[in-house]
Predict the structure.
Amino acid sequence: MAQRTVIWVILLLFVPAVVYCISVDRHGDLTIEYLSRWFIANYFYMAAPHWLMLWASILGPMPRSVMKVTLVVLNVILVLFQCWVWFFVPSRESGLAWVFYIPVWILGLCAVYAYYYFAGKQRASS
């Protein structure tokens, strides 16, 4: 990977950490003690599709542009999902709402790959 791509990937993998810290701060729990206890598990839950995408791009042939676009789409999904939890889900049910995050990011990955699949087919037939 080119150095510029590595920097982009690191920044895009950093977004779930920022989203989590903002969420914790909204509840008034942003302390080192709280983060040391809960950050790692919550970060990897929020960033699971990002890491899955990164491993898929390392293990298989995937254009860098597809990887970057997919990571951006996953970040948009994460931010929109977090906003949905903040503004539309009752606070006592917000933990349960995160169960729906997994199918949402799976649908997002399917949409991105369907787009690239059909765009590639269209280019090949032209």
